[in-house]
Design goal:
This protein is of the alpha+beta class. Helix content is 40%, strand content 20%. The strands form 2 sheets. It has a 6-stranded antiparallel beta sheet with strand order 1-2-9-4-7-10. It has a 5-stranded antiparallel beta sheet with strand order 6-5-8-3-11, with no helix packed on it. It starts with a strand and ends with a strand.
């Protein structure tokens, strides 16, 4: 079962989606591919979330802030059969939660540690709602109440330029700031550094295209998404996904960032 709630207008600069997911997976683990979009995740099945980084296992409470990802992460799907989530827009996490997103990159952090006023009781409030759509209403209400600052206009402008294929040097010139100051400010708001944000955004465009169906020409795919050539695309894909575009097999066309193991 998958359900979504319309994002309240006040939250649209910060939030991409508010959703509920329920399923029993035939696989126990899956790889989550790099993304620039942080998430709030509330595990309704158990008050725990488990992730793996090589031989290292990280366990958190059942409500977390999952930061932007510069590399793949492996999760345990067996313990995550019912999840409520909020997919944040790049830059939205800092504006909404008030914490530096560079502090949570490639990590899951207990929500009550990084969002004290709102995070400590959020999972219990969601569970009390019982029905999925009511749960999503609770999350939306909390997010609206917590909304206290806008997304910084210079960060929004930089995000748009980087998505459009501009180089970091060009973005710095357009914004009119020093290079080091721009890198630090962008990382604080988004998590990823500007150059890596551009790489991950380009990669996400590729996997969304591939998830819709087999691509006849990787050369045309490379050109479509701003790679120098097919070899550049395949090299970057290996670095960010640990596999090739030809072997990439997502959970579904609607979930291109999730790859069963």
């Amino acid at each position: 079962m998958f359900a979504v709630r319309a994002v309240p207008r006040l939250l649209t600069p910060f939030v991409e989606a508010i959703w509920y997911y329920e399923s029993s997976f035939s696989h126990e683990r899956e790889q989550v591919l790099p993304t620039a979009a942080p998430q709030l995740l509330i595990n309704l099945h158990a008050d725990m979330l488990c992730s793996y980084d090589g031989d290292l296992v990280k366990r958190t409470r059942g409500a977390v802030l999952s930061g932007a990802r510069s590399r793949p992460m492996v999760i345990n799907t067996a313990s995550q059969r019912r999840i409520v989530g909020v997919t944040l827009r790049p830059g939205g996490g800092f504006a909404l939660l008030g914490i530096g997103m560079h502090e949570v990159i490639d990590d899951n952090v207990d929500l009550d540690l990084c969002w004290n006023r709102w995070g400590s009781a959020l999972r219990e409030r969601v569970l009390e709602a019982r029905e999925p759509h009511a749960m999503l209403d609770v999350v939306a209400e909390v997010l609206v109440a917590a909304c206290v600052r806008p997304v910084a206009s210079d960060v929004q402008h930089a995000l748009a330029l980087l998505r459009g294929g501009h180089r970091v040097r060009e973005v710095v010139e357009q914004i009119g700031t020093r290079h080091r100051s721009f890198i630090d400010r962008f990382s604080q708001h988004v998590g990823l550094k500007p150059k890596h944000f551009a790489r991950v955004s380009r990669f996400q465009g590729v996997i969304h295209t591939l998830a819709r169906g087999p691509e006849k020409s990787f050369a045309s795919l490379a050109a479509q998404h701003g790679y120098f050539d097919q070899a550049h695309l395949i090299r970057e894909f290996r670095l960010l996904a640990g596999t090739t575009p030809l072997r990439y097999a997502p959970r579904s066309s609607d979930e291109p960032s999730h790859v069963p193991l």
